[in-house]
Amino acid sequence: MSPFEAGMLICFGVSWPVSIHKLWRTKRTEGKSLVFASIILIGYVCGIFHKLFFYYDHVIYLYILNLLFVSIDICLTIYYRNKGFIRNS
Fold first, then answer.
1. What is the pLDDT of residue 66?
2. What residues contact residue 63 under an 8 Å CB cut-off, 6+ apart?
3. Which of 15, 34, 25 lies closest to 82 in space, CA to CA?
4. Is the pLDDT assigned to residue 86 strictly greater than 80?
5. DSSP 33
6. The pLDDT of residue 82
7. What integer best gives the mean pLDDT of the chain?
8. Interval 35-78: pLDDT, tens
9. At what angle do helices 60-88 and 34-53 cross, to 10 degrees?
10. What are the angstrom distances between the C-alpha of 79 and each of 37, 50, 54, 56, 88?
């Protein structure tokens, strides 16, 4: 296990709950990019596949946790954007 890879995933992992909390509290999606979050999501999926097929170690759990956080962030962003769209229509 690379401590640098784990450190990178921990730092990214801390940022997603902060983003989710802010979105949940404010219910505002300005500045949120679904394309960017989707690219990050694909990156985590690729990291998981790499760990599964080439170099399995415990860092895979950090990838899975981050994947879960990004998925929640994407779902909340879509929900609040659609909720605002329906309300404004």
1. 97
2. 9, 44, 47, 48, 51
3. 34
4. no
5. -
6. 87
7. 91
8. 999 999 999 999 999 999 999 999 999 999 999 999 999 999 99
9. 160
10. 15, 31, 36, 35, 14
Task: Look at residues 71, 69, 50, 68 and name the one whose alpha carbon lies nearest to residue 5.
Answer: 50
**Conformation bin of residue 30: beta by default, left when phi > 0, alpha when psi is -120 to 50:** beta
Which of 81, 69, 84 has the alpha carbon at shortest distance from 37? 69
Separation of CA 75 from chain center: 10
What global pTM score does this model have? 0.87
Neighbours of 88 (CB within 10 A): 6
Query: Please, which residues have CB within 8 angstroms of residue 80's CB and are 6 or more apart in sequence?
Result: 23, 27, 28, 29
Would you kindly state where each structural domain of the chain is located, as residue ranges? 52-84
